[in-house]
Design goal:
seven-stranded mixed sheet, alpha/beta, about 20% strand, about 35% helix, Rossmann fold
Length: about 260
């Protein structure tokens, strides 16, 4: 993103933990992208280029990259387009890419939905988007929020300190990310996680029964009293207490643009 008077939210120079990158590559493989050759992929928030290099090596796609700076890129052959994701549109033509990845980026942005609309625009029909963000719905994160008011991997932020990156400012749970993707026009959502945390497994053993009871009470109340659960969103609500979301460290969602 361009630097300016307003502080910008900036991801870490390191792209992601190896488990996240591996899970993202597996999600891309499962998407089974069919594109006129040569297909091209875009990585938003490309960091040091680990993921774009892995995509080229594993899938043989040409790659483009964009970020708030090109100073983090370690691959001298990969151009990085500078873009302020809080203010600018993506600098690409409609329908250019068969794949768009946005890994560990949306939590640093002021708004998610405008970027999702841009991702939809630059994808070709049938193209896939893979998006990851910290899973704020896993059990340690829920307990941390209950005790401290902060989700896991989200911390108190400085006020008016313009000389330093702000950090993660936008916690997005699965339901609201999935809702935004569907409202944008995406189909075939596939949520997953990079790995299960040890503390999540221990919490699962202790809290499984209370979660099931509370979840059933919530479901019946929302459905019968408030009428907020309908066939269109039923699967999204049910997924909130799924195994992957209760145990997984990082949320990874794959979605497809209609043909």
């Amino acid at each position: 993103m361009h630097q300016g008077e307003k502080p910008k939210t900036t991801p870490s120079p390191k792209l992601s933990a190896p488990t996240i990158q591996g899970a993202v590559l597996d999600a891309i493989a499962a998407a089974n992208i069919h594109s006129p050759l040569p297909g091209e992929a875009l990585d938003i928030g490309s960091g040091n280029g680990e993921l774009v290099g892995a995509i080229r090596a594993r899938f043989g796609l040409r790659t483009s990259a964009c970020d708030y700076t090109d100073a983090l890129m370690k691959d001298p052959t990969q151009r990085v387009d500078i873009v302020d994701l809080n203010a600018d549109k993506l600098p690409y033509l409609d329908g250019r890419f068969c794949l768009v990845t946005c890994i560990e980026t949306i939590e640093y942005l002021e708004q998610t939905r405008p970027l999702l609309r841009e991702i939809f625009r630059v994808l070709e029909p049938g193209g896939a988007a893979v998006i990851s963000t910290p899973n704020i719905l896993n059990l340690p994160s829920r307990l941390r929020y209950l005790m401290t008011g902060f989700f896991s991997r989200f911390h108190p932020l400085p006020i008016r300190e313009r000389c330093h990156p702000v950090g993660r400012i936008n916690p997005v749970g699965y339901f609201y990310l999935a809702h935004a993707l569907l409202e944008t026009g995406f189909l075939d959502l596939e949520p997953g996680a990079d790995c299960y945390q040890r503390w999540s497994r221990l919490s699962w053993i202790v809290l499984l029964l209370p979660i099931k009871i509370a979840g059933l009470f919530f479901w019946l109340r929302e459905k019968n009293k408030f009428r907020t659960i309908a066939p269109a969103n039923r699967a999204l609500v049910a997924a909130v207490n799924s195994r992957d979301l209760l145990l997984g460290r990082t949320l990874i969602v794959c979605a497809r643009k209609p043909m």
